[in-house]
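User:
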Amino acid sequence: MKIAIIGQKGIPARFGGVERHVEDLAVLLVERGLEVLAYTRPNYTPENSKSYKGVELVSIPSLPTKHLDAITHTFLAILDLAFRRRDVDIVHFHSIGPSSLIWLVKLLRPRLPIIATFHTQCYHHGKWGGFARGYLKFGERMICSLPNRTITVSRGLFDYVKKMYNGNFVYIPNGVARKEQVELKEVVKWGLEKDGYFLVVSRLVRHKGIHHVIKAYNRLKTDKKLVIVGASAFTDDYIKELLTLAAPNQKIIFTDNQAGRTLEELFSNAYLFVQPSESEGLSIALLEAMAYNLPVVSSDIPENLEVIENAGIIFENKNVDDLIVKLIYCLENPEVLAKKKALALKKVLTEYDWEKIVDKIVLEYEKVLEVRRDS
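Assistant: Predicted structure:
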């Protein structure tokens, strides 16, 4: 069985939840004996990269602008799939933007089975204007109507699509692998110590709520630093706003995007992880923090509550005053954090284990291929 994956920026993941999801999925599929082809963008994965841990990488150009990067890359990837990859058995789309072109696959290769993963309702994200939001809603209709199977990564999304659309839906969450904690080495360049900082890992876009954390932290009396890992996603104005908010406080550290050993160290040695998003699909960074046995403080949006339940500290979404209260509580009650993080680790290893999740996705592949053979 050969699977082509479309919608991600590239592999290996340097940033981005979808990219982390696709990397883990693709590598585990290869380990199970499947052939996997993943389309990459030269502004994310070097054009000369041809494989990664057994995954075939196909670099396709794009127009690397805010509005055209994903759609031009997807269009050209579909043309490559249709005319050069006749050995592909299934195409797996990710996200509603790229999925807006699923109809083109239906036109060019009508018998090719299509699986699509609905990660998040991107049109809620503040960086998009009216036209882009309208187009993303069109992409949502395509991802919920045309594939042979549509996967939703949260129960909330599953309930939403079942109510709104007539399609073939299945809930399979994002996954996370068991994490090994590593000692401080690389991150000492930022003056960091074990348990000496709060950690945020996120794209720096408004709906991720980073400004709420900075405002709350600026009003705290603590020696612990605030480390913000992430970079712009065509959101330079928002970056300027964050830097302005943080400017008076020398204990706020922006690290840009990080991966590999450096990111592992940041997760392994933080005092706690803050997930302040105003809107999510199912946060992979949150799952990773829990898998690193890290206490979490999270906004109370449904997608976060679904993951955390009673295994973290919750604050009211967008409420800076409530976030301050909860951070003070965490500083004053380390014994509570110890209990919470133990619950969180148990939960992610039980409900969000990648090995089990990949088995479920492979089963969906087999089901759609069986239907094609019988038709």
